Amino acid sequence: MSLFDMISRTFFDFHSMAEVLPQLLKVGLMNTLIISIAATVLGTTIGLILALMGISPSRWLRAPARIYTDLFRGLPSILTILLIGQGLARYSYELFGPSPYPLGIFALSLIASAYMGEIFRAGIQSVEKGQLEACRALGMSYGRAMRLVIIPQGIRRVLPALVNQFIAIIKDSSLVYLLGLMVNERELFRVGQDAAVLTGNLSPLMLAGLFYLMITVPMTHLVNYVDDRFRTGRRKMTRPVSSLKEVDEMQQIAPLTSGRGQ
């Protein structure tokens, strides 16, 4: 068997891919999107709170935000997921039953919030201090100025970084399989791995990887596009104006001005 045949049978067996494709579409893709979107929404909410705590003048608010951020950014994602998924399993059983699905989402949201908090904080602090002072001079309270003027500008400036974080969450969702998801709760990686074990072929995992690429690569280009638009702004094309019109106007004005001079 040649090297090409071995690679093609191991990684590109289209028969094995076709067999696992329905499961990847109906189960894996759906659960990956549910986990990623839910973790992003929860992580964004917690991250914004952390950012506001981090820029607060009170050190009693800054210190917990700093500890939280350092903790969940410093720990490996796989360790955080295992600690949350196994350590809180007893309490989760009373609320959600035996499924570790919610705990996986919760663990990912804690990880994401630590990064998003720093992104939000950097965006808010990048807004010029003069804008806050101008809002205060107009009679706006600190909270209203932050809510209506400062925070919206800060979020807009870091929007590309937030989309990048969402891409990272999509990829980290593959680690939730360590908690032992049920059959109908498996995400893309778990579906591909189970099929690879049953068939003894890595083609299902290759197909799962293609699904991840189909989600993340367009979003990466979208981030670059949005970032470019925010940097350059919207450019409006205008027709070139001929200088002959200005010459005619000057010729019409010249006799009037010369007559006044006399």
UniProtKB/TrEMBL annotation:
GO CC term, one of those recorded: ATP-binding cassette (ABC) transporter complex
InterPro entries assigned: AA_ABC_transptr_permease_3TM, ArtM/GltK/GlnP/TcyL/YhdX-like, MetI-like, MetI-like_sf
Pfam family, any one: BPD_transp_1
Keyword annotations from UniProtKB, A to Z: Amino-acid transport, Cell inner membrane, Cell membrane, Membrane, Transmembrane, Transmembrane helix, Transport
Gene3D superfamilies per the UniProt record, alphabetical: MetI-like (1.10.3720.10)
GO biological process, one term: amino acid transport
Keyword Oxidoreductase: no
Function as written in the Swiss-Prot or TrEMBL entry: Part of the binding-protein-dependent transport system for glutamine; probably responsible for the translocation of the substrate across the membrane.
Protein name, entry field: Amino acid ABC transporter permease
PANTHER family assigned to the protein according to its UniProt record, in alphabetical order: GLUTAMINE TRANSPORT SYSTEM PERMEASE PROTEIN GLNP, MEMBRANE COMPONENT OF AMINO ACID ABC TRANSPORTER
One of the record's GO molecular function terms: transmembrane transporter activity
Annotated organism of origin: Rouxiella silvae
PROSITE patterns: ABC_TM1
Membrane topology category: Multi-pass membrane protein
CDD domains the UniProt entry points to: TM_PBP2
